[in-house]
UniProtKB/TrEMBL annotation:
Family membership: Belongs to the ABC transporter superfamily.
Domain of life: Archaea
GO-annotated molecular function: ATP binding
GO cellular component: plasma membrane
Stated role: Part of an ABC transporter complex. Responsible for energy coupling to the transport system. Probably part of an ABC transporter complex. Responsible for energy coupling to the transport system.
Lipid metabolism recorded as keyword: no
Organism of derivation: Methanocalculus taiwanensis
Location(s), subcellular: Cell membrane
UniProtKB keywords: ATP-binding, Cell membrane, Membrane, Nucleotide-binding, Translocase, Transport
Residues of the full protein shown: 1 to 229 of 277
Annotated ranges, domain ABC transporter: 4-229
Protein name, entry field: ABC transporter ATP-binding protein
Mode of membrane association: Peripheral membrane protein
Amino acid sequence: MHLIETRNLCYLYRNNVLALDGIDFVAPRKTSIALLGPNGAGKSTLFKHFNGILTPTSGDVLVRGEAITKKNIVDIRKFVGIVFQNPDDQIFSPTVEQDIAFGPTNLGLDPETVAHRVDSAVSMLGLEDLRTRVPHHLSGGEKKRVAIAGVVAMEPQVLVLDEPTAGLDPGGVEDLLAFLKTLPDKYGMTIIFSTHQVDLVPEIADLVYVMNHGRITGSGTVDEIFSHD
Ligand code: ADP
Ligand code: ADP
């Protein structure tokens, strides 16, 4: 059974934009999956179906083999964590550490476990020096790492990141990719991310999907997609 699977998934926005036009996507366990495609291809719209932020216009989304319902949506959101493209959409708290604690606290974990989760997310994302800072006063790249830490602290099995490297300086990109690369083996996580930095994909992804105009236009292993013979 795949962790996430979509079958002939279509999504029509209210303004009649058909953002997804028959998407068949699978995320196997413990893989790192890159989703490539130009702006407007439908990548964010697809991601928002993975934890029930959007509901399909037609077709199916299965998470651990189950459709998303009112009954299982809380569990599904523990299982699938999404880091949005714009960190300002998910940073609300007065300090970095409070912000990272927000998600695990909401899961109902005891304060000791929350503190442990915050400590490990802080060290995983290299935020030690920023713990007591005001998130809104941080740089774009720093905010991005805070937003990622907040989702990582919820320990999802599937971590979805929309353009995680956008706005980072080259050193920040390298650090983030090195970090993401460790997650499948170290924690058994599955990583799904979109990016425009195609050159970095072979280093980090196992599988690649290419999207355009709401459709999957290519998919395969990194070797299949990037071999030029
Ligand atoms: P990507 O993430 O690949 O840049 P999106 O999923 O954001 O693509 O967008 C896919 C298409 O849906 C685009 O044509 C975009 O303009 C449109 N779209 C995205 N969000 C909305 C929205 N909230 N309302 C209407 N159209 C939208
Ligand atoms: P242990 O829990 O025995 O310390 P683990 O390898 O399970 O060893 O975890 C090491 C640290 O990483 C722990 O602090 C744990 O909270 C954190 N951790 C474990 N799994 C995940 C995950 N999926 N995402 C983020 N952090 C995790």
